[in-house]
Amino acid sequence: MATSEALLRLRYRLLPDRLFGELLTKSWIDNVIPALALVVTILVMIWIVPGYLTVANLTDLARQVSEFGLIALALTIVILSGGIDLSVGSMFALCVLAALVSMNVLGLPVGVALVATLATGLACGLLNGVLIGYLRLRAFITTLVTLVIYRALYDIIFPRLASAIVGSMPVSPTWDLIGFGSFYGLPVSFVIFAIIAVGVHIVLSRLRPGWRLRAVGGARRSAYNAGINVKLTVCLAYVASGLLTAIAAFLFSARLGSTGADTGIGLEISVLTAVVLGGVSLGGGRGSVGNAVIGSILVLILTSGLIRLSMPGSVNQLILGLVLIAAVLFDAKWVKNRGKLLSKVYVSPTYLKLPNLTPPTGTDVLAVNDRLGAAELIGLGAVEGPEDVVLDRDDNLYTGTRHGTIVRFLAPDYARSEVFARIGGHPLGLAFAPNGDLLTCVGGMGVYRVSPDGKVAKVTDETNRSLLSVIDDSRLRLPDDLDIAPDGRIFFSEATIRYEMSEWAVDALEGRGNGRLICHDPRTGSTRTMLRGLIFPNGVTICRDGQSLLFAETWACRISRYWFDGPDKGKHEIFRDNLPGYPDNLNRGSDGTYWVALLGTRTKTFDLAMRKPGFRRRMAKRIAADEWLFPNINRGCVLRVSETGEIVDALWDEAGENHPSITSTCEHKGWLYLGGVSNNRIGRVRIAGADPQWTAHDDYWGKR
Amino acid sequence: MAGLGAFVRRLFSADDAGISVPAMDGVFKPDNRLEEAERLLLLPAIDNLVSSPAGLLCSSGKTLFQLDSGGASVSTVAIAEFAAPISFVASALDGSLAVGIEGEGVRIGQPGASKRIDLPGDMASCLTAGVFAADGSLYVCVGSRKHPARDWKRDLIEGGSSGMVLAIDPANGSHRELAAGLAFPNGAVMLGNGHLAVSESWRHRVVVIDPKSPHKVAILEDLPAYPSRLSPASGGGFWMALFAPRRQLFELVLREDDYRREMMATIDPAEWIGPELAGSARPDQPLSQGSVRQMGVLKPWAPSRSYGLVARCYDSGLPRESWHSRADGGMHGITSVCEHDGRVYAASRGSGTLLRLPGATSGGSPA
Predict the structure, then answer these.
(1) Is the pLDDT of residue B366 over 50?
(2) Confidence band (pLDDT; 50, 70, 90) for A162?
(3) Mean of the pLDDT values across residues B84-97?
(4) Number of structural domains in chain B
(5) Is residue B245 situated within a structural domain?
(6) How many interchain CB pairs under 8 A, A with B?
(7) Count of beta carbons in the 10 Å neighbourhood of residue A673
């Protein structure tokens, strides 16, 4: 038994299962499989084709990639917009014709020839764009028709000019440079392609037109509702396609200097294969320049390799067709199942053994009592989700609500309330700065400051990104509680970096140290992570020595102490473990004690489940979230802990009607105020024998 | 590498298939009628209700009571006291009673003048239900041969299927086995055609046994809750008490052998994951995420561990109507329903309450 537990613990320490899920959340994961396919194909080619890695061969491949890749980019843009362009092959042929007529027949300068070629591409693309974008014709049928029309035009014009094109050779060094020149060993055409590809990548991934294009392709109606000019965006996608095809045609003309009757025939199928193989989704909205480039190289290597293996052309086409079908099939399945796969593997529980708990006996300090049963209720039904409660110097009571507001209850009877500030996220931890500003941790947003007149300002919403974290942990996801050090530094906890506010319960299922302790220094404006790998760090309170702080680690049922200053700076030790429940907020109390709110009590069944990660993982997969086993958070209580971590008192609500789960406490002038994150009321009880003048404000900052 | 292999296997294995339990839907669409039913009497551990020629009887712990509901209030008269808790009561047409006593077996006869039927020891401790046939023979359900009646939860978590149905001849005290290998038979009723219907709790179904042949046929399957005792309904068909809800979490635990074994070995049964007869406010009780009190309210659809449910079925087994007390209610753990003098009574063992069902009219045509 002990050995198997030790093995289990080791297995969960050494094998980072969670990485599979985190990798799947990355957007670049779409490129990984095509990239792997490319590497495998290259290795196979090197193996079966002798002399594959020669300079001549690679240069030739680079030149082909420049032309082919540009057309792939053209098609990628159109597919991203949610359409398809089958006319690229015919368009390419027409543009080649335009370039060669300009250069060979009319003898125009290279610049003019380029403009003429681009104009041809523009005209062809614009026709497609207007028909599809503005007249709302189907992309597939429209470009199929223009494919035929452009091809027909080519077939009419080409025979009349064929001899003239072949008959004369242009004398232009620039033209020759584009066709045959090289730049530090790289073909010039490839350099041109690389520059264009980088430019298109920046436009697609970083600039507004690219985002609009993806939005239109991903969800046309939503894009329209968001105010995007859908018709124009679609039209421009086809225009861009025409222009990129024209550039490809120009490079092709410069390289070959002639054309034939079959130029561009079947090109659309190989380009389509390349684009889909590279990972651009035919459904629209998903894909990148990287996908197009990977796909192009893959298809060119495949076809050239097949030619070198002296396969007949028809077999070549057959193989390409099969590859296309396989790629489309894979794309469809991948898009459909990626989310499912992610939800299957993202939740990754780990081994967490809590010390054994002996149940309290009759006279034990932890035995259930009813001292909160007579709590006076404040704001019943007027607040929803008062996670933390705090009082100001004038005895007014403040709390955050799940509606994204901070509500103030006015002293002395707290019968009247008003919205003190609107924040927009659920305010969790609250603390007063010595100047009267209210600081709050807002779930899903960050740390905010509210001035006494109710003005809201952001303090921080990011910290330094960890070097080795797969998911981006620079953004604050779930800041939970904060406290202010004597020098004004703000220390706050972030409960988990893997889940959003609404999914905090899933973190309980994982039981891993997903949280951290962060410090914001208002003097420098910097935010730095102090401790990582904490198990749902929750309440934070500065100790009276001004050099250390206590923080609760909820799922580990313990309170830890961390020294941020003084001789022990950086020390981190357990202050009190094996608590009978799950600690939430920590607050100072009178007589040098601390109040610990327990949001729920431990159950043996959940403790056992925490030692069985496989059980929890299967639970997460097999049954609905509402049915998941949970600690008993319908039964919370308040503990009073001495300066040395000894539990000196416990207060329970025996019936559990008013305060089933308690997430925070605040002692103020002899009363204890109670909050609960899933409650709709605040409670207060008199603390027997407490100093009626004691306030946390005075304890922190001295009497005024 | 082994880890990767396990990972890939895990992705494709059927171990990850979702677990579902039948939804409370159709005839079982939830209402609040059991919660709103007339509460006649508080009687701790009230269990088996039975209609006899002498009146309505009920068992509670070691005592057998007669209930007098004639007047405005209901009064109880203790008519018999036994050495161990009563596990079932059945009444014959002539007024003689059969009483199951935990650990002792069955006693048959008029109250005060009963004789004990000898049963093998492992059959005597968990007699969950009994019914007299028209010819005077007695059919008795043995829920489990491994655990006494009060340890029903252990039998469930162990996946028990050692239950059986016995036919007892009251005249000479002989018994024979009618069916075996049942997963906690927990209720029995005679159908109009002379066949015996038996509820099988852990398999969430009702089976019909022909006393003359060894075959048993399931007439009602995939119940959304664990069925308990059955009783005849006037006008045909039968009443069925369902004592606790099925939940996805329970079904998961039943499939998780490793967790289940360790839970049974190291944790007190009162704190186990599993169905209960009543809700508990104790802090050590397991909880499902959906049962967390939100804004001071426990939602009626919360996946609670206890529930109150009574159903009326046709002779064919088809359910016809149902009465509910939901997660936010208290009339949970219904172990017995009984029709007496044209009124329908239910015993909520969880809350120790005797209920009279509203709107439950006798009669009606069978399907």
Answers:
(1) no
(2) confident
(3) 90
(4) 1
(5) yes
(6) 131
(7) 26
CB contact under 8 A, B296 and A633: no
Residue of B nearest to A18 (CA): B7
Chain A partners of B296 at a C-beta cutoff of 8 Å?
A: 380, 657-658, 679-681
Q: Three-state SS across A624-648?
A: CHHHCEECECCCCEEEEECCCCCEE
Segment A483-500 mean pLDDT? 91
Range of the domain at B199: 21-40+122-256+304-356
pLDDT band of B1, cuts 50, 70, 90: very low
| Structural tokens at position A348 | 């990754």
Nearest-by-Cβ selection for A603 from B286, B292, B294: B286
Q: Which residues of B touch A21 (CB under 8 A)?
A: none
DSSP β-ladder status, B163-168 and A671-675:
unpaired
Angstroms from A629 CA to nearest CA on chain B:
5
3-class DSSP state for residue A406? strand
Q: Verify whether the Cβ–Cβ distance B258 to A612 is below 8 Å.
A: yes
Please check whether residue B88 lies inside any domain of the structure. no
Strand order in the sheet with B105-110: B86-91, B97-101, B105-110, B113-117
What whole-number distance in Å separates Cα of residue A543 and Cα of residue A530? Answer: 17
Give B157's contacts (C-beta < 8 A, 6+ positions apart): B253, B254, B260, B263, B264, B272, B274
Classify residue B134: in a domain, yes or no. Answer: yes
φ, ψ of residue A215 in degrees (nearest 5): -60, -45
pLDDT at B326: 94
Q: At residue B5, does pLDDT exceed 70?
A: no
Please give the structure tokens belonging to residue B95: 């007024």
**Burial of A630 from C-beta contacts in 10 A (0-12 / 13-18 / 19+):** buried
Structural domains present in chain A: 22-339 (1.10.3470), 376-460+473-701 (2.120.10.30)
Q: Give the tokens for residue A308.
A: 């070198």
pLDDT given at position B364: 46
Give burial (CB, 10 Å; 0-12/13-18/19+) of B8: exposed
Instruction: Provide the CATH number for the domain around residue B140.
Output: 2.120.10.30
What is each CA distance from B273 to A579, A605, B252, B261, B288, in whole angstroms?
22, 7, 10, 12, 10
Does residue A1 surpass a pLDDT of 60? no
Helices (H) and strands (E) in chain A, counts: 19, 27
At B174 the three-state DSSP class reads coil
Q: And the tokens for A472?
A: 């981006």
State pLDDT tens for residues B104-123: 889 998 877 788 888 888 88
- In 3-state terms, what secondary structure has residue B41? strand
Please report the DSSP string for B293-358 in residue order. Answer: -BTTB--TTS--S--EEEEEE-TTS-EEEEEEE-TT-S---EEEEEEETTEEEEEETTTTEEEE-T
What 3-state DSSP class applies to B62? Answer: coil
CB A536 within 8 A of CB A499: no
- Please tell me the distance from the alpha carbon of residue A613 to that of residue A619, in angstroms, as a whole number: 10
Nearest-angstrom CA–CA distance, A522 and A609: 42
Interchain pair A368, B283: CB under 8 A: yes
User: Do B289 and A630 make contact, defined as CB atoms within 8 angstroms?
Assistant: yes
Residue A279 tokens read as: 């990972």
Q: What percentage of chain B carries pLDDT values higher than 90?
A: 60
Write a three-state SS string for A428-469. EEEEECCCCCEEEEECCCEEEEECCCCCEEEEECECCCCCCC
Sorted by sequence, the CB contacts under 8 Å of residue A623 that are 6+ apart come out as B18, B19, B248, B249, B251, B252
Residues of B in contact with A679 (CB under 8 A): 293, 295-296
Residue B329: inside a domain, yes or no? Answer: yes
Task: Report chain A's C-alpha Rg in angstroms.
Answer: 34
Q: What percent of chain B has pLDDT over 70?
A: 92
pLDDT in tens, A90-122: 999 999 999 999 998 888 899 999 999 999 999
